[in-house]
Design a protein that fits this description.
The structure is a homodimer of 374-residue chains. Chain A contains 17 helices and 9 strands. Chain A is an alpha/beta fold. Chain A folds into 2 domains: 223 residues, 3-Layer(aba) Sandwich (Rossmann fold); 96 residues, Orthogonal Bundle (Tyrosyl-Transfer RNA Synthetase). In chain A, the strands form 2 sheets. Chain A has a 7-stranded mixed beta sheet, sandwiched between helices. In chain A, strands 1-2 form a two-stranded antiparallel sheet.
Chain lengths: 374, 374
């Protein structure tokens, strides 16, 4: 048995991504697939190069649809259970790149209903408030407002529900239970919810590509079974690894523990404090030993955050890796490098976040219906 | 064990209403309750006098809320699986009377999603089409368009869903399964659906009274458990008997068998044919025996339709009963009396049905939100 658990609502233990590829039945994002993506995009993306995106389903069909001129659209999302942390940004930044490189429409779903169903403590008013906070972070990444539509489940169910209903009719309780581990005490909102997460896949007739944390894969396994029954192509997926919590490679970012993650709302002082005090280090017991043996970048959270997100330049990243592993660079210096990158990113992000006009991004039902009728 | 089955989706055997009162835990609509209703309304209604409405839950609380000036609103509905038959009209006609007597707002829910989930054969397009047909029959009964709002689930989910979500979070799979007999092969739309049928109860802060066929009671038993958890009063119910099918007291009106019911779309020739050929008779084997022993009004469908719906005048109905039971009136004459009443009703109904402007009745989200904010 695996010694880790990963579901849309739970993550325990250190994730073995090779094992995930096998047990989930994913396709590894191998060299030839990466090359095809780079050729189609006319550029590569550092998250693909570095294996942050490590697996896919039917990415080849998406590239073929692009090549043939039929095109595709992109859908990603977020369950608003707290402020946005840097782990959430990974698939969004990638979606932004897909929009820029392929000129595609992007739908972003805020599942305020899911988080309400899941958490005893959260009210719909609170998840709606958090949804707006998360939307602000998403839009601030530089999406084209004319081609980007932010969906809030409790606001936009008028459009989603007829699509969700078609999916729901094809999913039995047995199937949902085995995909998600539901019990008899699961509430009926949660049981239905997977149909709502499937619905955006049916918003357009053309194929959809979904960049997502691999924990969300079970939802779309069901959607992929159902979509062909509804005359739609199977949604294609591209999976990213789960960014570790500040506590180290076995820890998770958690809305319940502010010290487990760096949030997009954190001020420079908080960023400095969190990295210096909380970021798990791959350094040795003392400086002498560190100089002699070098640090372990595989477990060092500061290095991993640079690799996952904050240092797109391979040359600079490689310099840091080499310096740290050789013992020339100390943990304090590595942390300082991360603090600088994060602070720089967040200052620019805060400014963009404040300047965002969300009215340009909310899903507009009339615009959508007009577009679909054409 | 009972030798009949009655659920929102199935009805088998002859219903024992006394047993239903006991097993469902209903309050019988007894003489003192009928008197209180009559006093509050300033008039009585023949369906109440005759026991067509035979049970209730918390009708006394509704009358008290009316007396105190807090008022109430009315909610009823229809699952659009076929054209409207006369059995459907029973709670609607009563809702119309409540509106007239108490000046109340009425919400009418067309559950096009439920029927889609329930039936392999029905598409959402077809249930939406039938919903519009049913809406036309409802509106034609003379409701005040300013105080009457027709809800279509797949159109109006934008307003209903946040209310349904609050209900759904409080209902586990176990609870839904025991209320409705769900199995592992039940689709997840059907499992969630009861929350949607509950949602209109939460549309206003004041108490709601729901006239309904007794088969729908299980939905609202759940709603009544949940409403107080959401700060709402328990929905009050007033239950009508199930009108028998043309085939006799043990038969049901069924959309699948056009000869089982009289539909509001039937032309005079069809009405005549159905009553003459298909209406189960309480008459004897031959005329001599009938003259000697008299007919049995308890099983005669023509008599029951007059009692349930088509002959509001107690004096006339009593004359018919006495004539038929004494053997003076023959089955052919009783059928002729029903045919005349039904034809007369339908001619007027068809004219009103054609004249209805549904745009005056569709649930207007902006009007609703404006009203709720006040």
């Amino acid at each position: 048995m695996d010694d880790f658990v990963l579901t849309p609502w739970e993550s325990r233990g250190r994730i073995d991504y090779n094992r995930l590829v096998e047990t989930f039945g994913l396709r590894p994002l191998d060299g030839s697939m990466k090359m095809r993506l780079r050729e189609a995009a006319g550029q590569d993306h550092y998250m693909v190069r570095r294996g942050v995106f490590f697996a896919h389903r039917d990415l080849d069909a998406i590239l073929e649809s692009h090549r043939s001129g039929d095109g595709f659209f992109v859908y990603t999302g977020r369950g608003p259970s707290g402020q946005t942390h840097i782990g959430h940004l990974v698939p969004w930044v990638f979606a932004r790149w897909l929009q820029e490189r392929f000129g595609v429409r992007v739908y972003f779903q805020l599942t305020d209903d899911e988080k309400f169903y899941h958490s005893h403590a959260l009210t719909l008013e609170e998840t709606a408030r958090l949804a707006e906070e998360n939307a602000r972070d998403f839009a601030a990444l530089g999406f084209d407002p004319l081609k980007t539509h932010i969906i809030r489940d409790t606001v936009d169910m008028g459009v989603l529900y007829p699509l969700a209903a078609r999916v729901a009719k094809k999913i039995t309780f047995s199937t949902a239970r085995s995909a998600f581990g539901f019990g008899n005490d699961t509430n009926i909102g949660m049981i239905f919810y997977t149909a709502i997460q499937s619905a955006p896949c049916l918003l357009e007739e053309r194929p959809v590509l979904i960049p997502l944390g691999v924990d969300q894969d079970p939802h779309f396994r069901l959607t992929r079974d159902v979509a062909p029954l509804l005359g739609h192509p199977k949604p294609a997926l591209i999976h990213n690894v789960m960014a570790p919590g500040l506590g180290g490679p076995d820890s998770k970012m958690s809305a319940a523990d502010p010290n487990s993650a760096i949030y997009t709302t954190d001020e420079p002082a908080a960023i400095r404090r969190k990295v210096n005090r909380c970021a798990f280090s791959g350094g040795r017991a003392d400086i002498d030993e560190h100089r002699r043996l070098g640090g372990d970048t595989a477990v060092d959270v500061s290095y991993q955050y640079l690799r996952l997100f904050f240092e797109p330049d391979d040359g600079i990243l490689e310099g840091i890796r080499e310096g740290y592993e050789s013992g020339r660079m100390l943990t304090g210096e590595l942390k300082q490098a991360l603090i600088e990158r994060v602070t720089q990113f967040m200052e620019a992000h805060h400014a963009r976040r404040e300047a965002v006009d969300l009215d340009e991004f909310w899903f507009d039902h009339d615009e959508y219906k007009g577009r679909m009728r054409r």
